[in-house]
């Protein structure tokens, strides 16, 4: 065995050793939920270092953007950057192994949770703005005093009472009158206000609280959104809906609260929040703790408002019934969530701890795939791959005999190199990637086919075995390089343009082509050299 | 040794008019389908919502349809996906009123409500849920288009550098033919055009180009080798010489795409269809589009180099200077011009 062959064998040995080393199952740290305590903990898992894409593993992929529908956000890039930090903090505690949170382009946030089984819950945790604020309710009934003016404005705009709240026949009679003046004056005197007829107050209820029958609240909400009504809402006050439906008497109601526009404190000052079930009321509650500074502000403010009612507002919705401030409150408080499951309470505690999003996020793209579908895909893809490889093996050995067997041996190295390449560079294997891999096996033998056909031609021309092999490799080279470079170019474009799975496909294709050039040219040439060296007197080549 | 098509000497180029007519006819059929039915875009491109779910026992589609109508999703498609206990509900954007960026999410939730009603809550398993906003869809559309155009451009430049612009142009025309033929195929088969299918089309581009380059590489070599032959003969010779390789390589590739088609499951099936067809059209175009176009270009704009000096015509036109002065070749093997053994 001459020096040249020995050098080549060393190179191959190093390549194989490197590939095997990068494919050895290794310990990786994963954050998983500890079932005993419900908290996150680090565990080490021994597994193959090949990342599986969401489509193979199951999981959820979300693309989020700043919600611009409720008023434009001037600097979306900044908002997304801040949102990324918040979302990352939330996700880290959420209990998914190896989550991906990254900014794509300028104003888009990508979140990928592999293996996540409850996409709805994940969406909720990520998307929730979690803007917490405490506001004093309308203690003096300022909003109530403004109601007649609002009613009048609505009447003027030609809004007629409808549905269950339709008042007496008298107002309908007058409402049907064509004379505008007559209608206005008569309605002022007789008809109950359109809005005020829908707003009911409980005796001894919370000041500033109005109950709206559940079926009417979309109507009331749309009335309140009108610009003419908005203009009449007293300055310094906002209207906020309750988060849940409440049963009052036999009918379900939705509570509407008139609250101060100025919060006495916001969730920014919150440092700790947990979830538990109140042993007395059996309600889910989220006790929280404020920072030192927050506690100071909070106790000052509550001292000024003793006897007032304080609405706890989360993302614009009032949580539970506003409690009365009996005494100065310090650093601790709690949010009552009624009969919601504890899971929801702990999710709320999680998002409160992580902080509020700088702006509401909207999901512009969602893909979620169940783990079983992913497992099916792996199973089918691997089966197709094995059958495909077997067919290629049969064709190659059947046609080229011993040389074909050498090509097949090189093909196993090709598979090894490709997988190692994927693992070494940390690329993700997706379903299209798997298909690309299977396809590239068919294409991978092309280099060998070109070489073998070339050698056959050279043999037909009467060249000696040695020369035919050398020339065959040499002359096939041009075509192999040109054709593979052009395929790599298209794959690069695909990578630049594609997303997720398609990028996986492009990467697999590129790595596959490089691996096939190494195995088909270098490895097979080495095998031929050894073969010819061993049998110097061979007359016919099994090709 | 087994040798398929060894020393083949078929006059491939002679049949070019036939080939043009056949492929033209196929494209016309494709165009008719394209105009009447359009392409079956996935929601990745149109924006919209897709929910795939699996049930233990078959459910009449009409029940699901009725429930969808009730939640106001009468425009949604329902179809089986692979197994007959696996269903897909797909609502494209635009088919329903009042869908915005957040609307696709709302539709997904509405589908869930409809399923709770018709199949029963807990009676089905969600396998896949996709909700794509219109903005993302539009972005993808333009990206996919750009990808195909850029890949053409890059290919043209690469071939111009490695070969010569005439070869590059011929290869790009052949590749463009493959793209059009593949789109016609997608339209006739009513395959869903997802990003993965666009990926398959681009892979077909790469594969077909690869095949064309193999033949052109041989043409380039033979042009240097046989200075006295006209291009028509050289093209035929090159195609014949590379024929065994074509049969083998296409054979192995077809073997893998067919196993993908049959075994790899429903998700990847459109990809496998496109690839399988692409191998046929890629092979066809390398022989019957790329080579004749090269012949035509060379006739139209004869090259200034040695190639241009030789006769080009279809059948060695009379009166043309056939024996152009040629510089000695560096051909490694002395060989008779035509393989007439």
Give your account of this protein's structure.
The complex is a heterodimer of chains A (543) and B (341). In chain A, 51% of the residues lie in helices and 20% in strands. Residues 163-190 of chain A have low confidence and may be disordered. Chain A folds into three domains: 3-25 and 371-534, Multidrug efflux transporter AcrB transmembrane domain (Multidrug efflux transporter AcrB transmembrane fold), CATH 1.20.1640.10; 38-128 and 363-369, Alpha-Beta Plaits (2-Layer Sandwich), CATH 3.30.70; 135-159 and 194-343, Gyrase A, domain 2. Chain A has 15 helices and 19 strands. Chain A is of the alpha+beta class and 543 residues long. In chain A, the strands form five sheets. In chain A, strands 8-10-9-16-15-7-11 form a seven-stranded mixed β-sheet. Chain A starts with a helix and ends in a 9-residue tail after the last helix. Chain B is α+β, with helices and mostly antiparallel strands. Chain B has two domains: 13-38 and 137-309, Up-down Bundle (Multidrug efflux transporter AcrB transmembrane fold); 48-132, Alpha-Beta Plaits, CATH 3.30.70.3400. Helices cover 61% and strands 11% of the residues of chain B. In chain B, the strands form two sheets. Chain B has a four-stranded antiparallel β-sheet with strand order 3-4-2-5. Chain B has a two-stranded parallel ribbon with strand order 1-6. In chain B, α5 packs parallel to α7 (195-225) and α7 packs across α8 (231-241). Chain B is elongated and about 80 Å long. Classes of the chains: A alpha+beta (543), B alpha+beta (341). The interface between A and B is large, with 81 and 79 residues.
């Amino acid at each position: 065995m001459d020096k040249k062959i020995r050098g080549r064998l060393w190179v191959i040995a190093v390549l194989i050793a490197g590939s095997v080393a990068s494919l050895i199952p290794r310990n990786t740290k994963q954050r998983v939920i500890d079932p005993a305590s419900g908290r996150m903990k680090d565990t080490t898992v021994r597994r193959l270092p090949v990342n599986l894409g969401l489509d193979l593993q199951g999981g959820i992929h979300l693309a989020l953007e700043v919600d611009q529908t409720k008023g434009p956000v001037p600097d979306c890039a900044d908002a997304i950057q801040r949102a990324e930090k918040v979302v990352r903090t939330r996700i880290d505690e959420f209990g998914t192994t190896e989550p991906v949170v990254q900014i794509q382009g300028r104003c888009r946030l990508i979140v990928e949770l592999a293996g996540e089984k409850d996409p709805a819950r994940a969406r909720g945790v990520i998307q929730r703005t979690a803007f917490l604020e405490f506001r004093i309710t309308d203690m003096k009934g300022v909003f109530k005093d403004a109601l007649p003016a609002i009613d009048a404005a609505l009447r003027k705009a030609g809004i007629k009472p409808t549905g269950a709240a339709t008042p007496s026949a008298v107002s309908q009679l007058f409402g049907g009158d064509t004379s505008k003046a007559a209608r206005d004056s008569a309605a002022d005197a007789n008809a109950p206000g359109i809005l005020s007829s829908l707003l009911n107050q409980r005796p001894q209820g919370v000041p500033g609280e109005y109950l709206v029958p559940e079926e009417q609240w979309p109507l009331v909400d749309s009335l309140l959104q009108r610009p003419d009504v908005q203009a009449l809402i007293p300055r310094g006050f906002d209207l906020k809906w309750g988060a849940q439906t409440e049963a009052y008497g036999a009918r379900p109601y939705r509570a509407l609260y008139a609250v101060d526009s100025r919060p006495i404190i916001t969730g920014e000052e919150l440092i700790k929040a947990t979830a538990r079930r109140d042993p007395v009321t059996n309600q889910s509650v989220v006790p929280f703790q404020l920072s030192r500074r927050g506690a100071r502000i909070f106790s000052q403010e509550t001292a000024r408002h003793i006897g007032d009612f304080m609405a706890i507002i989360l993302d614009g919705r009032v949580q539970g019934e506003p409690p009365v401030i009996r005494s100065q409150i310090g650093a601790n408080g709690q949010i009552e969530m009624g009969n919601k499951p504890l899971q929801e309470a702990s999710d709320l505690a999680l998002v409160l701890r992580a902080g509020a999003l700088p702006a509401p996020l909207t999901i512009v793209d969602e893909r979620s795939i169940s783990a079983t579908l992913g497992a099916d895909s792996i199973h089918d893809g691997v089966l197709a791959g094995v059958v495909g490889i077997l067919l290629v093996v049969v064709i190659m050995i059947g046609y080229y005999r011993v040389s074909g067997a050498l090509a097949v041996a090189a093909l196993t190295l090709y598979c090894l190199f490709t997988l190692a390449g994927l693992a070494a560079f940390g690329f993700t294997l997706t379903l299209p990637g798997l298909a690309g891999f299977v396809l590239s096996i068919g294409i991978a033998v092309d280099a060998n086919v070109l070489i073998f056909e070339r050698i056959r031609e050279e043999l037909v021309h009467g060249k000696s075995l040695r020369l035919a092999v050398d020339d065959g490799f040499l002359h096939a080279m041009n075509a192999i390089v040109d054709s593979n470079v052009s395929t790599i170019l298209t794959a690069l474009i695909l990578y630049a343009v594609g997303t997720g799975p398609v990028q996986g496909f492009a990467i697999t294709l590129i790595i596959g082509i490089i691996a096939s050039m190494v195995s088909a040219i270098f490895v097979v040439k080495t095998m031929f050299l050894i073969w010819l060296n061993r049998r110097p007197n061979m007359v016919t080549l099994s090709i | 040794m087994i040798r398929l098509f060894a020393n083949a000497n078929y006059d491939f180029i002679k049949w070019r008019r036939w080939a043009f007519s056949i492929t033209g006819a196929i494209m016309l059929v494709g165009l008719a389908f394209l105009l009447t039915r359009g392409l079956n875009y996935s929601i990745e491109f149109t924006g919209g919502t897709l929910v795939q779910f699996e049930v233990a026992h078959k459910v009449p589609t009409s029940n699901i349809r009725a429930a969808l109508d009730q939640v106001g999703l009468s425009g949604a498609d329902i179809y089986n996906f692979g197994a007959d206990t696996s269903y897909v509900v797909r609502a494209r954007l635009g088919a329903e009123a009042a869908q915005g960026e957040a609307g696709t999410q709302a539709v997904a939730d509405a589908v869930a409500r409809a399923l709770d009603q018709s199949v029963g809550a807990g009676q089905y398993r969600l396998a896949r849920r996709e909700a794509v906003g219109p903005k993302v869809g539009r972005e993808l559309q333009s990206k996919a288009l750009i990808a195909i155009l850029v890949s053409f451009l890059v290919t043209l430049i690469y071939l111009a550098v490695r070969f010569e612009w005439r070869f590059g142009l011929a290869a790009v025309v052949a590749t463009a033919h493959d793209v059009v033929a593949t789109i016609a195929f997608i339209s006739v088969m009513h395959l869903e055009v997802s990003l993965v299918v666009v990926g398959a089309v681009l892979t077909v581009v790469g594969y077909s180009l690869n095949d064309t380059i193999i033949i052109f590489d041989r043409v380039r070599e033979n042009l240097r080798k046989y200075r006295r032959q006209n291009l028509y003969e050289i093209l035929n010779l090159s195609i014949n010489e590379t024929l065994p390789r074509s049969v083998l390589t296409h054979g192995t590739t077809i073997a893998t795409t067919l196993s993908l088609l049959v075994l790899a499951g429903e998700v990847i099936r459109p990809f496998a269809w496109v690839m399988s067809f692409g191998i046929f059209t890629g092979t066809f175009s390398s022989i019957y589009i790329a080579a004749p176009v090269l012949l035509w270009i060379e006739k139209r704009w004869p090259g200034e180099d040695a190639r241009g000096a030789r006769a080009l015509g279809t059948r060695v036109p009379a009166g043309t200077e056939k024996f152009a002065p040629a510089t000695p070749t560096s051909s490694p093997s002395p060989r008779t011009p035509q393989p007439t053994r």
